[in-house]
Amino acid sequence: MVSLVRRAHAGDKDAWDEIVERYAPLVWATCRAFRLSRDEADDVAQTVWLALLDHRLREPAALPGWLATVTRRECGRRSASAAWQRTHLKPWADHDAPADDAPVDRELLEAERNTALYAGFRQLGERCRTLLSLLVRLPPAPYEEISATLGIPVGSIGPTRGRCLAELRRRPEVAALIRSEGG
Amino acid sequence: METPWWADDERLLAALGQARRAADEVPPEFVSAAKVAFLWRDVEAELAALVYDSALDRELVAVTRGGQRVLIFRSGTDTIEAEVGPETLLGQLLPPRPGTAERQLATGEAETTPIDEAGCFVFSSAPSGTFRIRCRSQEGVVRTPWVTGGPR
User: Fold this and answer.
1) A24 vs B31, B43, B148: nearest CB
2) Does the bond joining B28 to the residue before it have cis omega, within 30 degrees of 0?
3) What is the per-residue pLDDT across A3-23, written as a single tens digit (0 to 9) for each?
4) Is the peptide bond before A64 cis (omega within 30 degrees of 0)?
5) Mutate to test the interface with A, among B1, B3, B6, B134 (most CBs of A within 10 A)
6) What ipTM describes this predicted complex?
7) Class (C level, CATH) for B46-143
8) Would you list the domain boundaries of chain B?
9) What does the pLDDT look like over B57-78, one tens digit per residue?
10) Using an 8 Å Cβ cutoff, are B22 and A29 in contact?
11) Which of A108, A113, A165, B66 is the most buried (most CB within 10 A)?
């Protein structure tokens, strides 16, 4: 991640594109969690990406956390969600309504988990990405199709899957997620 | 003790599937717009940070639209002041020196105007969307971060 940010800062467009591919889903899901309209989401995204170009590319560490925080803040500003405002801006008004912002918080946690897994996935080798994509497809691809696509015997699919998932757990973003969930 | 989700291959795979589908839900234009933003990367100019915004000040007393919005930006050596009104944007570069001011909109449009000996410049329209100002003089280029909104 740090090297990706350094490359983008130095002018490497491909590195920037990869950062966007990894983290646009986080920005999008956060906007969804706050129930923003499409226009509002576009507005949040513009603010977040321009701020990233302005400031954060100079400080590559902890980019995912920075993105999550800034996106939430921008969404919170635009959010029509009374529940969010009640809990986070006017805590004294809590007593007159149930804490129905639980879905927002749950969706934000889900978005961060998804982001870590997706970022990790994008760093795997091509064979692992192909295999895991076929396995998570709905409905999952039959083993015969996987075997033909990857050119490996059906009997190797299980062990290969295990190796790819082990590799996924070792990606920095996923390892950090596992640590944050008590692993 | 129960196996956590990430230690179990089946559940990790299910979580990855969910992450993949969440990524697939992102509209392509949402991603491409973010990629295009890279064009606005600006390493030539020195960044002057926003140190004062009257819009933030006034939120406390809930003043409505109409007045001037005052913005002050500062870098190590330079200050850019801007007064955003309903019809104009008046600015001053300090220490005062002549040059050219450029106002860039996040939509891609840009316009320039001269900076006079007193460091003053004027744009004869107020920006409605996200914008930033770049001031070029003999001493180099200094710019503001992106600012959202017009007067207020």
Assistant:
1) B31
2) no
3) 888 899 889 999 999 999 999
4) no
5) B6
6) 0.85
7) mainly beta
8) 5-40, 46-143
9) 755 444 444 578 899 999 989 9
10) yes
11) A165
